[in-house]
Specification:
Structural class: mainly alpha
Helix content: over 70%
Oligomer: single chain
Strand content: under 5%
Shape: globular
Radius of gyration: 19 Å
Number of helices: 15
Length: 308
């Protein structure tokens, strides 16, 4: 078996199946840990925007994460990935490191954290669909019915919140989830060949020229009001941009991209909690109901996939 640096290069795990209950439980726990960290990103973005501009926030979070990742890769003396890996790594970098943060930050200019979080509940379905096309991973009909039900709940919530029509913020959010779902699926696929931390690490390093240039340019043109809240927000975003993907991609490698993606249906519920606790936002009456409905869909997708 080949090795890559000090870690195993290949993980002989099927795209959509789990071979043992122990592996399945561990995979769900790891993926769930990643989702838990992801759920704090909207609140941290709001904090960062209290002292940094929109583009400064996007550039700094990516650049900080790349510096952390690059240091870890250098200390572990990890070899550069093979050429065949770079298309996927660039998809991860452009989708998860550049596109998603930029578009969600734009959306947060006019939408609340609670609303944005529930709209992003469409991510699991988009990721599963991308993975199914990309890897030809198969799931039973019950899995897809539950996944579509969760997505339909999110769409209904969005339309009700805006009188039957999506807002400009929703268009940013939908574009963000399409880009990020591609990055999630490609990262999950690569995590079957490279350790998860190396997948996100190399993706961050690959787009460092973009994020560093954006940060440098934006800091020279956008106002900066340094404060503990803003610094905490941007530093958390930078660290989590690297750290949160480590258990997320490893979980995907263990239980498959499509099954792991559906665990992210829990993120809207977690985001609502953090929006209320950390940002003191007023939660729309329909938001908790929508979040609980999509949370119920997680159980249905996991049960269907486990029996398949």
């Amino acid at each position: 078996m080949k090795t890559h640096g000090s870690a195993t290069l290949r993980h002989p795990i099927a795209v959509g199946s789990v071979h043992t209950p122990a592996r399945g439980g561990r995979g769900m726990l790891l993926a769930g840990s990643g989702v838990g960290l992801f759920s704090l990103s909207f609140a941290a973005t709001e904090w960062s925007l209290r002292g940094f501009g929109l583009w400064s926030t996007v550039g700094l979070r990516g650049a900080i994460a790349a510096l952390i990742a690059g240091l870890c890769l250098a200390l572990r003396r990890v070899r550069v990935p093979e050429r065949r890996h770079w298309a996927g790594l660039l998809t991860v970098g452009l989708g998860c490191v550049v596109g998603f943060p930029a578009l969600t930050t734009l959306a947060l200019q006019t939408a609340t954290t609670a609303h944005s979080a529930v709209v992003i509940g469409l991510m699991p379905l988009a990721t599963s669909c991308y993975s199914a096309v990309r890897t030809r991973g198969r799931q039973p009909r019950a899995f897809w019915l539950a996944a579509v039900a969760g997505a339909a709940t999110v769409v209904t919530f969005t339309l009700l919140e805006h009188g039957g029509a999506p807002s400009g913020a929703d268009l940013y959010l939908f574009a963000a989830l399409l880009l990020c779902s591609a990055g999630y699926a490609e990262g999950g696929r690569l995590a079957r060949e490279l350790p998860g931390w190396q997948v996100i690490g190399w993706a961050l390093v690959a787009v460092l020229p973009v994020t560093a240039t954006l940060a440098w340019t934006a800091l020279g043109h956008e106002p900066v009001r340094l404060g503990a809240t803003a610094l905490s927000g941007v530093l958390f975003l930078g660290a989590s941009q690297f750290v949160s993907y480590i258990p997320w991609y490893r979980g995907m490698a263990l239980i498959g991209v499509q099954r792991a993606a559906q665990i992210q249906l829990a993120q809207p519920l977690l985001n609502l909690f953090w929006a209320a606790v950390l940002l003191h936002e007023t939660i729309p009456a329909a938001a908790p109901v929508a979040a609980l409905l999509v949370l119920a869909c997680i159980a249905a997708t996991q049960r269907a996939a486990h029996r398949y």
